[in-house]
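Below is a filled-in request sheet from our internal design queue. Each sheet records the structural input a requester submitted and the sequence that came back. We keep these sheets so that new team members can see what a complete request looks like end to end.

REQUESTER: design group, bay 2
PRIORITY: normal
MODE: inverse folding
CHAIN LENGTH: 122
BACKBONE (tokenized):
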């Protein structure tokens, strides 16, 4: 999990320092590289303009992380040490840690992949 979190943060640091002003298509017209800071702390909050603050989002991530851990423990008791469950947990929990780091240290999320389904093209 540490490696996944480190990869995420290294990518964000490099993009923020070297590529923040770059934009280009990856799979046009659907997928673009388009860095931006999401200061609304979550996709739902941003898209729906709910106005939910930073500390509520941090609390949600902490609660979800606890629930993910409890689910992981339950699945391990039910199915034993399962490689797929361990990999699933590593990715989901790493994502939660990355989300928490974004909210606490970046004051938002550095989003750099734009899915052009609902938004006009760049």
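RETURNED SEQUENCE:
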């Amino acid at each position: 999990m540490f490696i996944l979190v480190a990869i995420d943060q290294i990518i964000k640091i490099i993009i923020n320092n070297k590529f923040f002003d770059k934009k280009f298509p990856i799979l046009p017209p659907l997928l673009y590289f388009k860095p931006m800071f999401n200061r609304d702390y979550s996709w739902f909050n941003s898209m729906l303009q709910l106005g939910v603050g930073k500390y509520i989002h941090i609390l949600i991530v902490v609660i979800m992380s606890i629930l993910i851990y409890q689910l992981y423990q339950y699945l391990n008791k039910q199915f034993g040490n399962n490689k797929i469950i361990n990999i699933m947990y590593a990715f989901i929990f790493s994502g939660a840690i990355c989300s928490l780091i974004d909210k606490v240290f970046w004051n938002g999320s550095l989003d750099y992949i734009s899915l052009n389904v609902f938004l006009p093209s760049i």
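SHEET NOTES:
- The chain has a mean pLDDT of 90.
- The longest strand covers residues 31-38.
FILED BY: M.R.
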